[in-house]
Design goal:
Radius of gyration: 25 Å
Structural class: mainly alpha
Largest sheet: none
Mean pLDDT: 76
Strand content: under 5%
Number of strands: 0
Distance between the termini: 74 Å
Helix content: 55-70%
Length: about 170
């Protein structure tokens, strides 16, 4: 696993070197890997919520930034030491493919499990299957008269609300 991790880092390093961003490489790759790690942690949290009925961890913005900093620092310190160069990897398209594949897998898992989580939340709130498929909206009923938005608009614009007798 460590060798694979170094292989991915090496190929990102060679790509950045070819593009001309070698001077900011440790920071940029650390940010990329930190974001991927946060996605993985969120996926694990969703899996626990969907399949094991645990609560979703709700964090404030400051807590998220602190967690990302805690993840970022060891990655940054590891990359700065350039251990990935000790393995004498050769640049190949296979390494770039592995990185792209890793990102696609993480993204696909994130979208899939987020959708499962959304469905579970809707079911817990008592939505029907048809409402869940419509994104939480009621199905259209042609016999039902739509609610007027006039009162809401008057509230938003700070206008007096008129009753039927004042019109």
């Amino acid at each position: 696993m460590k060798r694979f991790f170094n292989y991915i880092i090496f190929h990102i390093y060679t790509f950045q070197k070819r593009v001309g961003n070698e001077d900011i490489f440790p920071i940029s790759i650390s940010m990329i890997l930190t974001i991927l790690a946060c996605f993985l942690f969120y996926i694990i949290d969703i899996i626990l919520f969907v399949y094991y009925d645990s609560e979703i961890i709700k964090l404030s913005k400051i807590q998220i930034i602190l967690i990302m900093a805690v993840i970022f620092m060891p990655i940054y310190l590891y990359i700065r030491k350039k251990h990935y160069l000790e393995y004498n990897f050769k640049e190949s398209k296979k390494g770039y493919f592995y990185f792209i594949f890793l990102v696609v897998i993480i993204y696909t898992m994130f979208v899939y499990f987020a959708n499962k989580s959304r469905n579970k939340i809707f079911e817990e709130q008592g939505y029907t299957k048809e409402q869940i498929e419509n994104g939480g909206k009621k199905p259209f009923n042609p016999n039902e008269k739509p609610k007027s938005l006039e009162g809401d608009i008057r509230l938003w614009c700070n206008l007096p609300i008129l009753s039927n007798t004042q019109k």
